[in-house]
Write a structure and sequence with these properties.
Mean pLDDT of chain A: 95
Number of helices of chain A: 10
Number of strands of chain A: 1
Number of helices of chain B: 7
Shape of chain A: elongated
CATH superfamily of chain A: Formate dehydrogenase/DMSO reductase domain
Strand content of chain A: under 5%
Distance between the termini of chain A: 20 Å
Structural class of chain A: mainly alpha
Order of helices and strands of chain A: HHHHHHHEHHH
Shape of chain B: elongated
Strand order of the largest sheet of chain B: 10-1-11
Oligomer: heterodimer
Order of helices and strands of chain B: EHEEEEHEEHEEHEHEHH
């Protein structure tokens, strides 16, 4: 699959936002007495900025953004429609949470638990958009969901540690430790999915694709001279060396460097981890081999 | 329940692309708007097509066969592209089983094309919506056309008649008989999409030409300059 850049930004930005909110909520749950409202208000603003940027990025994916409101209608069958509902709902709950802290309205735990539930729902919707595509075996697996949740929580908690460094230094060590554990967990779960995807054997072959049972079939013509949507959308078109480079960036920027930096320099760890997550999402697309590519193995 | 579909005979298709051209002509001229062409007369011509003909070489030289493979939406009975659509723009008609896109509802998110294992949906780069084969839904029911022309453009265009059109749920239809009696098969059955379109396989065919057929004077296969063989039986013309 060709990585869709707006989707890379959407999933990584809202993932970090959701993780940050869950971290904020646990801070309030476990250590509210020692925290000022500013920590929560500013944190909620950060979450809203991240999810708004993600929402804006997603618009660039659409051919007709002016019709984006229609994307909420088919929530009964489409995970994309469910995400379209869950994202604004989550943002509204986070806004209410920050507003309640700012005005001293109270009920912040109740609002917070609502937002956490919506955050988890949003994680499920986002991941299921990919995991629900049965023909893409690399994506159609529970590990997709696990990785979206763990990596979102890891980057969000790293950002929470950085945020605590400025506003609640006494909490920073605990948050950094949580970010360390989540990043290590992410390294484990993503490694499992990388190994799984590398060992997958495709369900379809050229033989089943055109229904001719002969071991030697060579494509002579794709039916188009200058390429087509099929050759543009489903091939990343990068060299194996480039893909290996992205994989290295994935491993080092998402996991290795943040693990070594988060306990001391969480802001730098977050910046590196975010860049690494963009590489991670790029690789997520690039490693998915779409069965339609079987029809486009020839040169012309 | 009606399920309209195409049945494509790979034993007959000669790879002439007449179906591609006529499909493009009909569907670019309709009320839904033109099918985009980018750089049509330049180095990298590309555009939106609902139907393409690909060519494969099967076997090792010298025992090879060239197979021309027309590829368009298969109008699956369990279409994976439909439930994923967030707007309901992609839908399967209950009345005749045609899978269609409502271009006024499509937001151009391309999610449906990711879900389709066959790669038969094409995003139109100018209209910014997903497009696909409609089985010429705007002509197969047109009462103003003579009944013989109420067929998809590709079917009407095919010179050797490799494309059949009809209801695959009617056991007595031309397409159902062809599928049943000529080994019709579906593409990628492992995808679980139950395509309505079927393909008829290549068949071993031999053509025996006897000597007298080459020598008979009225035969277009007659070898020029070869002596006329009086021992051969007389032709119909000579008898009359």
């Amino acid at each position: 699959m060709r990585p869709a850049f707006s989707v890379l930004f959407l999933t990584t930005l809202i993932g970090a936002g959701q993780g940050l909110f869950i971290a904020l909520f646990f801070c309030e749950l476990l250590a509210s007495a020692s925290l000022s409202p500013g920590f929560f208000v500013g944190g909620s603003v950060l979450v809203l900025i991240l999810s708004s940027l993600g929402g804006i990025a997603s618009v660039f994916h659409l051919g007709h953004p002016e019709r984006a409101w229609r994307a909420m209608t088919m929530w009964r069958t489409s995970w994309l429609a469910r995400e379209g509902i869950a994202l604004p709902a989550f943002m509204a709950a986070v806004f209410a949470y920050g507003f309640a802290h700012w005005t001293g309205f109270g009920h912040t735990l109740a609002i917070g638990i609502t937002a956490v539930v919506l955050s988890v729902a949003l994680f499920i919707c986002t991941a299921m958009i990919y995991a629900a595509i049965k023909v893409l075996k690399e994506w159609a697996h529970p590990l997709t969901l696990v990785n979206f949740v763990v990596l979102g929580c890891a980057s969000g908690t790293t950002l929470a540690a950085a945020w605590a460094g400025f506003t609640a230094p006494n909490l920073m060590p605990e948050l950094a430790l949580a970010a360390f554990v989540l990043t290590a967990l992410g390294l484990l779960t993503r490694s499992i999915s990388l190994l799984r995807n590398a060992r997958l054997s495709p369900a379809s072959t050229l033989q089943t694709a055109i229904g001719i049972r002969h071991p030697k079939i060579v494509q002579k013509s794709q039916g188009a001279m200058g390429g087509s949507y099929n050759t543009r959308e489903f091939f990343h078109g990068k060299s194996p060396a480039f893909v290996r480079g992205v994989l290295l960036m994935l491993v080092f920027c998402t996991f290795v460097l943040p693990l070594s930096l988060v306990l001391t320099l969480p802001l730098l760890a977050f910046v590196l981890q975010y860049a690494g997550l963009l590489a991670e999402r790029w690789y997520f697309f690039a490693e998915a081999r779409h069965p339609q590519n079987l029809y486009y193995q020839g040169n012309s | 329940m009606t399920q309209l579909a195409l049945v494509i005979d790979l034993n007959v298709c000669v790879g002439c692309h007449a179906c591609v051209t006529n499909c493009k002509q009909w569907n670019t001229s309709g009320a839904a708007g033109a099918l985009t062409d980018c750089n049509p007369y330049e180095a990298e011509p590309n555009g939106t097509f609902f139907n393409r003909v690909q060519t494969f070489e099967v076997g090792s030289y010298p025992n090879t066969e060239t197979v021309h493979f027309p590829k368009s939406c298969l109008h699956c009975e369990d279409p994976p592209c439909v439930p994923v659509c967030p707007t309901g723009a992609s839908y399967k008609r209950k009345s005749d089983g045609i899978v269609l896109v409502d271009y006024d509802k499509c937001i151009g998110c391309k999610y449906c094309s990711w879900a389709c294992p066959y790669g038969v949906r094409e995003f139109d780069e100018q209209r910014k919506v997903m497009t696909k084969c409609t089985l010429c839904v705007d002509r197969i029911y047109d009462q103003k056309l003579p009944e013989a022309e109420r067929k998809p453009s590709c079917v009407l265009a095919c010179p050797p008649g490799a494309r059949l059109f009809g209801d695959v749920h009617d056991p007595d239809s031309e397409v159902s008989v062809a599928i049943r009696e000529r080994g019709g098969y579906a593409l990628m059955p492992e995808a679980g999409t139950r395509p309505a379109n079927h393909y008829l396989p290549r068949r071993k065919q031999t053509l025996t030409i006897r000597d007298e057929e080459l020598y008979r004077s009225d035969n277009p296969h007659k070898i020029d300059g070869a002596p006329f063989d009086l021992d051969l039986p007389p032709t119909n013309e000579e008898l009359n």
